[in-house]
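Lecture 7 notes: from sequence to structure.
We start with the chain below.
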Amino acid sequence: MATEVKAAVFEVPALTYAYEALEPYIDAQTMHVHHDKHHQAYVDNANAAIAKAPELSGKSAEEILKDLSKVPESVRTALRNNVGGHVHHAIFWSIMAPNAGGAPTGPIADAITKTFGDFAQFQEKLNDAGVKQFGSGWTWLALGPSGLQVLSTPNQDSPISQGLHPILGNDVWEHAYYLKYQNRRAEYLKAWWNVVNWAEVNKRYEAALKK
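Predicted structure tokens for the same chain:
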């Protein structure tokens, strides 16, 4: 008899704000499609892959991504892509908010200034990484052994798989911006700063420091 595995391991988190709350920077139609369709597809595909690997039942998404070499080869690609997509989007929704943006405050502000010189230089570096990410992917601020760093990752490859803790990330897959910005990725990246929830980014930074 086959080992029974829960049909659903991961779930799409509900938004803590209305779909239209990030207007005019991110439009409501994009939010509906992005959250309800794209994120749901990652969750569905991740759960389907987990069902084929009972030994992974009960592991967190972060545990799976942290050491993909321990994931059965038969489902490794599916889980790298879909668990990565789930984790990345969960971060993405949480670090955005209406009536947000502006310059960072708190510990993350100090760390950004210390690492990058000032906020403007950090913005330029993150935006540049996003513009130069060929094809689909993400641009990140992550914490590693040497401190904060900016990087980009293709598709849904995760900084977690590189031993890093993602603090802030922006989605540069076309579905994240194309309905409003079409091919103007740089414009989207610049506008996105108006919805960054620095209080949540600070929480992520402080939690990462304790790991």
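Points to note: Confidence is low (pLDDT under 50) at residues 1-7. Helices lie at 28-51, 61-66, 73-94, 106-116, 119-132, 178-181, 185-192, 198-209.
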